[in-house]
Amino acid sequence: MVLFKKAKPMKSNVVIIGGGAIGLCSAYYLNKAGASVTVIDKGEFGHGSSLHNAGYVCPSHFIPLASPGTISQGLKWMLSPVSPFYVKPRLERDFISWVWNFKKSCTDENVRRAMPLLRDLGNASLDLYEEFAAMKAFDFEWTPKGLLILYRTERGRHDCEEEAGLAKEIGINARLLDRPSLQRLEPNVEMRAEGGLYFPDDCHMTPAKFVEGLAKHLEAGGVRLLKNTEVSGFKIEGKRVVGVATSAGDLSADEFVLAGGSWSPNIVKKLGIRLLVQAGKGYSVTIPRKENKPAIPLIFAEARVAVTPMGDTIRFAGTMEIAGLDLSITRRRVDAILNSIPNYIGGFEKSDFAGAEPWAGLRPVSPDGVPYIGRFSSYSNLIAATGHAMIGISLAPITGKLVSEIATNAKPSFDLSLTSPDRFS
Ligand SMILES: Cc1cc2nc3c(=O)[nH]c(=O)nc-3n(C[C@H](O)[C@H](O)[C@H](O)COP(=O)(O)OP(=O)(O)OC[C@H]3O[C@@H](n4cnc5c(N)ncnc54)[C@H](O)[C@@H]3O)c2cc1C
Predict the structure, then answer these.
(1) Does domain 13-419 have CATH number 3.50.50.60?
(2) Which pLDDT band, with edges at 50, 70 and 90, does 7 fall under?
(3) What is residue 2's predicted lDDT score, i.e. its pLDDT?
(4) Residue 156 pLDDT exceeds 80
(5) Which partner from 39, 58, 74, 112 sits 20 to 30 angstroms from 218, CA to CA?
(6) Helix, strand, or coil (residue 202)
(7) How remote is the C-alpha of 270 from its chain's centroid?
């Protein structure tokens, strides 16, 4: 449990650009701090990447995406049209720069540096989710059941053992399990995997219920939500942003928060800022299922597929396609997610998925696997809150809390030198 310092009450106006999980959680804590808050979204609130993802709140994801082995594994995967990872080569300066910095970050040093911060942010965020759940203002099916990684190959076993070792080193609760122990832990489904790694302290929830419930709660609490309103430019005075131009007119404020997810680089380009974020497209397929499903969320290690029981449904999610701001669905990669299921668990037939519509979302991916949280040095009143890649739902509450601390000029609860939005400039 982290004890947060009390910030001074904030009297200023804040405009948040982007109303996904990150923007909405920022609005929640800024509103609590006394600010007058407006959130602007070009679509519906929470309908970006935050809508139908896997819903893991996972301090277990303490290893950054940019780690040794990612490049060699990624190159192998690139050769397969049904692999869980794909990078579409492009001759764009920002893309090339992102790839260069991603490659540079795939080191042990990056992992060692990022791990304690990701652990601390993950744990603190989980505590804040517990507070949301205890508040009972809206139900988001908060479920503390842990997370179970399943492997079926020697390589998968090796990776899980290595991860278990790192987890032990940094104090994350994790247990390696053989097949009989897996089956005892999860008696509702036939376990076909060879073994697994269990993180008992992770939780999960239904992300659409969280973002939609939070948006309503914020509106009832006096936060102004402008949907279907696109931020298209800025008004500047010296080193300060004084207003945003939107499709519904201009808006001025004292502080601005950039929470535009994968669209963030395009938004701040107009300010002359180059922010390295690539969209990492992923898919999910959700089917109704009340019983005969796992109670604990699963990850299929080799297939990189996430399985989440959500209320009366079950969701299968996966793939990472770095292919620009493109939400089109590549059917063969969705099929690859579904085809992996019988390799790990029994009880699911192809016909169960007939008619199920796949969903696509764009994860905002930074090159080093660490989010951007902090003020930009080029503007004194512009705060970055983006780049959370695969852990944006997990880290949304703590990001919002940190944004409110930064905006109130309180000392942030964590050392944020690694999350500086200027670190690749
Ligand atoms: C398949 C899949 C599974 C995932 N599973 C998990 C998981 O289990 N756990 C986890 O922690 N994370 C998971 N993620 C990642 C997570 O979904 C993201 O990290 C998170 O949703 C990012 O939130 P965000 O608010 O930054 O972005 P978004 O939710 O994308 O929100 C950005 C918002 O900005 C708005 N916007 C953009 N441009 C403008 C503009 N010019 N003006 C106004 N508004 C604008 C958009 O409309 C959008 O609503 C998953 C992602 C995918 C795709």
Answers:
(1) yes
(2) low
(3) 52
(4) yes
(5) 58
(6) coil
(7) 25
CB of 263 closer than 8 Å to CB of 372: no
For CA atoms 366, 368, 369, 374, give the dihedral sign: negative
214 lines ligand 1 (CB under 6 A): no
Q: How far apart are CA 280 and CA 365, in angstroms?
A: 6
CA distances from 82 to 178, 218, 330, 392 (A): 29, 41, 10, 25
Which tokens belong to 73?
């594994």
The whole-chain average pLDDT of the chain stands at 95
CB of 297 within 6 A of ligand 1: the answer is no
What residue segments make up the domains of the chain, in order of their start?
13-419
Q: Does residue 59 line the site of ligand 1, with CB under 6 A? A: no
Residue 403 Cβ contacting ligand 1 at under 6 Å = no
Read off the pTM.
Answer: 0.97
Length of the chain: 425
371 lines ligand 1 (CB under 6 A): no
Task: Write the pLDDT tens digit of every residue in 261-294.
Answer: 999 999 999 999 999 999 999 999 999 999 999 9
Atom 2, ligand 1: which residue's CA is nearest? Answer: 53
Beta bridge partners of 373: 385
- How far lies 263's CA from each of 19, 49, 276, 279, in Å? 12, 11, 11, 8
Residue 1 has pLDDT above 80, yes or no: no
Query: Quick check: CB of 160 below 6 Å from ligand 1?
Result: no
Residue type, 223: V
What is the Cα–Cα distance from 27 to 223, expressed in whole angstroms? Answer: 7
> What is the pLDDT, as a whole number, of residue 254?
97
Residue 48 Cα, ligand 1 centroid: separation in angstroms? 5
